[in-house]
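Obj: model holo form, ligand = nicotinamide-adenine-dinucleotide.
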Amino acid sequence: MSDQGDAARRIEELRALIRRYDYHYYVLDDPLVDDAEYDRCMRELVELEARHPELVTPDSPTQRVSGAPSEAFAKVIHREPMLSLANAFSEGDVREFDRRVRAALPGEDVEYVCELKIDGLAISLRYENGEFVQGATRGDGELGEDITRNLRTIRVLPLRLPERVSVEVRGEAYMPKKVFLRVNRERDEAGEQAFANPRNAAAGSLRQLDPRVTARRGLSLWMYAAVLGPDGTVPGGPGPFRTHEEILKWLDTLGFPVNPHRRVCRNLEEVFQFLNEGDRLRNTLPYDIDGMVIKVNNLDQQNRLGATAKSPRWAMAYKFAPEQAETRLLTIEVSV
Ligand code: NAD
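Output (holo structure tokens):
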């Protein structure tokens, strides 16, 4: 068979495999393979599509946010899409990201904010006049699942803010490592199947029809974004905001949990220094992280860089090299 024919066949194979993995991970909260294996398939697909751009289709998993919302929940239409992040697996990938950013902003200074990449699931919280009114999962990025009642049970979630602002705040829900071990011990004693890792335990616990189950699962949150209007403000709030870091500080003053392990970096060397620190910090944290996120700090620059259908061009997830983390139970191999 021709090179083109081989590539087309392998691309179809990989897409089918990834869709199957996505279904088990996002819909059933029960992954078939570990993240490193998933990332390997995705990377092979990205590379094949880059060599054969004529074979790229808009429905390829490389082009869209994965994770269909479940029929079990009411749907929430996201006012602004909840996107994924482009991945970096090496120093070279991070340098390439920086080169692309600077090429799109010729002659401008670029500052980055580096944060921990929390290994949980993305959620959005909507407040009207300071009151929590609706919470949702990311779903497929356009349509999420309404999990308001479940989110209300999370203790660190502010039900009322000190200011009468109307704002959508986004972040990550996660299960602390200690809680994960406790929940799995209890499941084991009850003869139930253990969760594969804290991320899937968090997703399975939040996407419950009975909020009392969620309440018993000890979930927590780190919030890292607010959806602003076109003028950089939110109704009833301060602003206009100029930087991502200003938003994080404001969220902190409103009482949201905002992760303190972050740094504004003025150049790539400072970014690499923080990435190395994060790698060392990883095993000392009471929750799982699977990498670091690098974001352009200036919001005007973010807007000008824009986004693809899948991820913003102003941010990148630097993924740690795979390791058997202490809270991961096992790698399940399947033949497909
Ligand atoms: P992603 O998890 O690689 O990155 C995007 C997500 O990072 C965001 O949606 C957000 O939820 C999260 N995030 C955490 N901390 C953040 C921060 N500080 N700022 C911004 N975002 C932050 O991308 P994805 O599309 O959600 O999922 C793809 C990844 O999920 C894969 O790379 C793989 O690791 C895993 N996955 C695994 C399987 C499997 O079968 N094992 C299947 C599907 C996906």
